[in-house]
Specification:
The protein has no helices and 11 strands. By secondary structure, it is mostly beta strands. Strands 2, 4, 5, 6, 9, 10 and 11 form a 7-stranded mixed beta sheet that branches. Strands 1-3-8-7 form a 4-stranded antiparallel beta sheet, with no helix packed on it. It is globular. The mean pLDDT is 96.
Length: 119
Amino acid sequence: QLQLRESGGGLVQPGGSLRLSCVASGGTLSNYDIAWFRQAPGKEREFVAAISWSGASINYGDSVKGRFTISRDNAKNMAYLEMNSLKPEDTTIYHCAARRPIVSKYEYWGQGTQVTVSS
């Protein structure tokens, strides 16, 4: 069973940057599409970014376009989310997720990493 673990969250000032990492175990990440979602307590889950298994297809949520960059390194079984020009409204827990390309829903989820943007 594929397991995902995020890291890299923390406290950053508005306008700052963070790089989140997602490491996979129990499977080969190159077999999966990867996405990042975020969810604040009491709010709906929000799509942040997704990258296909090959890296050929990338999509971003409207609120992060131009500021966040998703990438992956299949050789290292890792995915990343580079976050720049961070805003206080980016504060929440970020999760990475994986799915087989043939299914529509993300099947595997990490526990999440907290990002706090505050002065």
